[in-house]
């Protein structure tokens, strides 16, 4: 890439660090400000922050790559995600915003689970925090893999150095500014992603004389819509649409609902967020489709399908614009990594360290421990990302399934089932994690493959958790009157609002 492209990237890095410094001065004096921005985040920032932290590098690399390699099967992932995100805004966001505040002002998802069942439910707090750190370390590594691939493909920078650059900038502004820095940078990054995913497929399409020419070139190597539908199996459709189930249990997304300014702002955030999501998903899929058409029509060799966005950006745009588009990929990557690092560090600080230590800490010391947690999780994720053979989409899918299966049914039952008990919640969560790990890693099929090759692991994990929660709650009724009273208050308040 030319000097102009590097200037664009340098400017992007400067803006991210400046936001970190701004947030450092505004909202890091206590742990509530560092973790949730004082619950004063606007609906606009909430919407784009949730979207940007959700989509990550797979939006500009994994999803276009899936369309480039496999065709229209990737569309069903987009449909499932859109439906899941909409349901999350409708059924989780309002109640969770109120409930986390009423449940002794819970600042993290594990704290909410514990407070939901009373102060003595510490086991579920520790276990859920451990699950967050485990899967977020894996999830964060997927973003670093995307960052390494970006620097290697676009800038001819060695893969490991690319990982280090990506991680260095993210860790700097996350450690400095906490949740406010993460949310504001996510807002800017969401805007950049939106522009990039409109610009690249449109400009690439203009290289063709007509839709017919583009379609003919694309379908030379990927199946058309009719063929894709004919080859689609019931299990395949369930697996792809089931990505939407994951939304109910993604801590880095639903923490945005906990931080939004008020319940009344949720509808505004929903309208902005879903509109942003529809445009960017269509843009990502279109990038993969136009990319495979361009490669076939003009003899372009693409060694890694997940780099098609990068390849088109470098071929079709002035170096200054290409640098901006590379910044869009970094924006997608960094927005998710920063959110995951902060949630992991929050759980380590609030749900593990303080619970195990059994002593209150000064606000300054608590924030310092949170910053150390960010750094620790980042280092472990970097070590995992050194395996260059890992694909972005596969790493994301495993972590997404783990969270969706472990926390998704539990969040819904916590918000809607008055009879849910602590024992049921803990057993269901552990059962889901065990099911997901078994589904991914145990080679039980005749060909030596795991069951995840037949059905996406979030489906059995979600079903097992739901069944355990329902059956055990029937056998073990909730009796804590204060817990029942808080549940009734939340439902009365959300009904009125």
Automatic annotation (TrEMBL):
<feature type="transmembrane region" description="Helical">
    <location>
        <begin position="368"/>
        <end position="386"/>
    </location>
</feature>
<keyword id="KW-0472">Membrane</keyword>
<feature type="transmembrane region" description="Helical">
    <location>
        <begin position="161"/>
        <end position="184"/>
    </location>
</feature>
<dbReference type="Pfam" id="PF00474">
    <property type="entry name" value="SSF"/>
</dbReference>
<keyword id="KW-0997">Cell inner membrane</keyword>
<keyword id="KW-0812">Transmembrane</keyword>
<dbReference type="GO" id="GO:0031402">
    <property type="term" value="F:sodium ion binding"/>
</dbReference>
<keyword id="KW-0915">Sodium</keyword>
<keyword id="KW-0406">Ion transport</keyword>
<keyword id="KW-0813">Transport</keyword>
<dbReference type="InterPro" id="IPR011851">
    <property type="entry name" value="Na/Pro_symporter"/>
</dbReference>
<dbReference type="InterPro" id="IPR001734">
    <property type="entry name" value="Na/solute_symporter"/>
</dbReference>
<keyword id="KW-1003">Cell membrane</keyword>
<dbReference type="InterPro" id="IPR050277">
    <property type="entry name" value="Sodium:Solute_Symporter"/>
</dbReference>
<keyword id="KW-0739">Sodium transport</keyword>
<feature type="transmembrane region" description="Helical">
    <location>
        <begin position="307"/>
        <end position="333"/>
    </location>
</feature>
<feature type="transmembrane region" description="Helical">
    <location>
        <begin position="74"/>
        <end position="92"/>
    </location>
</feature>
<dbReference type="GO" id="GO:0015824">
    <property type="term" value="P:proline transport"/>
</dbReference>
<dbReference type="InterPro" id="IPR038377">
    <property type="entry name" value="Na/Glc_symporter_sf"/>
</dbReference>
<keyword id="KW-1133">Transmembrane helix</keyword>
<feature type="transmembrane region" description="Helical">
    <location>
        <begin position="6"/>
        <end position="24"/>
    </location>
</feature>
<feature type="transmembrane region" description="Helical">
    <location>
        <begin position="454"/>
        <end position="472"/>
    </location>
</feature>
<keyword id="KW-0029">Amino-acid transport</keyword>
<keyword id="KW-0769">Symport</keyword>
<feature type="transmembrane region" description="Helical">
    <location>
        <begin position="398"/>
        <end position="417"/>
    </location>
</feature>
<feature type="transmembrane region" description="Helical">
    <location>
        <begin position="424"/>
        <end position="442"/>
    </location>
</feature>
<feature type="transmembrane region" description="Helical">
    <location>
        <begin position="228"/>
        <end position="248"/>
    </location>
</feature>
<feature type="transmembrane region" description="Helical">
    <location>
        <begin position="122"/>
        <end position="141"/>
    </location>
</feature>
<dbReference type="GO" id="GO:0005298">
    <property type="term" value="F:proline:sodium symporter activity"/>
</dbReference>
<feature type="transmembrane region" description="Helical">
    <location>
        <begin position="191"/>
        <end position="208"/>
    </location>
</feature>
<comment type="function">
    <text>Catalyzes the sodium-dependent uptake of extracellular L-proline.</text>
</comment>
<protein>
    <recommendedName>
        <fullName>Sodium/proline symporter</fullName>
    </recommendedName>
</protein>
<dbReference type="GO" id="GO:0015193">
    <property type="term" value="F:L-proline transmembrane transporter activity"/>
</dbReference>
<dbReference type="GO" id="GO:0005886">
    <property type="term" value="C:plasma membrane"/>
</dbReference>
<comment type="similarity">
    <text>Belongs to the sodium:solute symporter (SSF) (TC 2.A.21) family.</text>
</comment>
<feature type="transmembrane region" description="Helical">
    <location>
        <begin position="269"/>
        <end position="295"/>
    </location>
</feature>
